[in-house]
Amino acid sequence: MSKDSKRKRGQFKEAWIRLKRNKAAMFGLFVIIMLFIMAVFAPFISPYGYDEQHLKMANLLPSWRHLMGTDNFGRDIFSRIIYGSRVSLQVGFIAVGIGVLIGGTLGSISAYYGGIVDNVIMRFIDTLLAIPGTLLAISIAAALGPGLTNAMIAVGVGTVPTYARVVRASVLTVKEQEFIEAARCIGVKDYKIIVKHILPNAMAPLIVQATLGVAGAILSAAALSFIGLGIQPPTPEWGAMLSAGRVYIRDYWHIVTFPGVTIMVTIFSLNLFGDGLRDALDPRLKR
Amino acid sequence: MNDVLLNIEDLVVSYTSDNKKVNAVNGMNIVVKKGETVGLVGETGAGKTTTAKAILKLIPNPPGVIERGKIYFSGEDLIKKRESEMRKIRGNKISMIFQDPMTSLNPVITIGEQIAEVIRLHQKVSKAKAGIIACEMLERVGIPKVRYDEYPHQFSGGMKQRVVIAIALACNPQLLIADEPTTALDVTIQAQILELMHKLKIDFNTSMIMISHDLGVVAEICDKVAIVYAGQVVEFGTVKDVYKNTAHPYTKGLFSAIPKIEGDRPKRLFYIPGLMPDPTNIPVGCPFSPRCSFKFSTCEKEAPKDIYVDENHLVRCHLYGEKERELDLCQFY
Prior knowledge:
The complex is a heterodimer.
Chain A: H1 10-21, H2 23-40, H3 42-45, H4 77-113, H5 115-130, H6 133-144, H7 148-174, H8 178-185, H9 190-198, H10 203-226, H11 238-245, H12 254-281
Helix pairs in contact in A: 1-12, 2-4, 2-12, 4-5, 4-7, 4-10, 5-7, 6-7, 7-10, 8-9, 10-11, 10-12, 11-12
Chain B: E1 4-17, E2 20-33, E3 37-42, H1 48-55, E4 64-73, E5 76-77, H2 83-89, E6 94-97, H3 111-122, H4 127-140, H5 157-169, E7 175-179, H6 187-204, E8 207-212, H7 215-221, E9 224-229, E10 232-238, H8 239-244, H9 249-256, H10 297-301, E11 306-310, E12 313-316
Parallel strand pairs in B: 3-8, 3-9, 6-7, 7-8
Antiparallel strand pairs in B: 1-2, 1-4, 4-5, 9-10, 10-12, 11-12
């Protein structure tokens, strides 16, 4: 309505100010942004194509021509890592998206209606929780067959229970607030109460969990690729590169080291950022 | 009878807690006429808020159940209405103002949007038009419309209650239920809010149920007053009748318990001995009988019926009626 939008999103702005004070989280955010830029502009940044093979130049150690050396097919590892960020980020964010969407819906319905609905949904979630996440992802990936989409689904479904529980817990506290009753009092429909009135107030723990979850999802996808159930060659994926290079680890250390370090740095940054976000969004830490 | 807007007959609401039945409302009768303000006065736990929620059918179920009774609103029984029909009534024909303005606004939505939301729910208007109506409502409750885009935490308590009033009146409801609207505010703001409510009530020609435990507030703005005790109305009449010709011993007790500034101040404040009956175990006869200083044998055996002591003045007490016990009750207090 009015042009005065400076004051808008007051609580998120406040959280941002607090986040900015956290050096480690800002470092994490910086790395994540760099990764995004890398993924988006991959064809312009990478010196070679990701599937360009030069068999004569296979297994070269890092040099100025090949910053991270070449693999057993003579492909430039640096270029493959840059292209790989596309796949990894995609898997990370979409898998978390699937988890948040399904888990969030189940969790909020279960918390809002309570009673039998709550019981049925949460027992189903408990069943999912009983199976270790990675194992669940492996079985889903094995059932659906390898590939990028299936890997995302497999990893995403594996994270559903976590999000369902997180969302349920925070919806339970918000739905007892008086403004929810006030909303019911003016005739708002149930689903609209959940989407418009409850969820925006229950967001903070979910945001944190999701940020940390992206790191986990990238790792799970890499693990799936490592055992051959994830992304298939020649598509560059960090986990798959690790898996392909492990045979040569005795003679050519650089083939596995660089994808490994990349995964590590990415996960590390996401975790730093996630931790910082949790602190920033926690009102108890307000000064 | 045409000018009766709301007629509650023999309403019984109970909650189940730890396998015990808690009778929150026991045979409540209230009549609200068009344009009238009725005050509901009673102690904490007397069933005032439960009655209000029952009118909107917002009793959480489980644990709450409306066991019997009828709630006629403009001639239609609300108890029989389906949830989807109730949603069209809530906020549109009947609105409610809650006790604590600090928590009854959504902290992440601008106040303008919250007013516009109720308008969009019940009137077929565009988003822009709803925004304009919301701005008008803001101005009417005394908030400059430039504050449309601000969030609840940027407002003071009194201002928030004004926003809540704007939301409640945005669709021009026929009945406004105010559940202790000024309890959470300080005294100077209380007066402002009460004045605003009274003015808007006349402007919008709305009937109002004012829940309060402050007899002063009720005297200020209500036409009629219902004294609630243990889930039933023990005395009902115009403010003048109830305040001047107090009939029920409980009401008398309430008035005596108000500290007086004039005259000789007694050393100790008067209080009604005993406590409200345990809602899981309400006495068989008159619920007030254990605390009543005028009780006689019938009181503990038979539940009293409504008796008209005057044309518009009802009382539920054995002291009146067939026996017409001519007791000068006042001398006891």
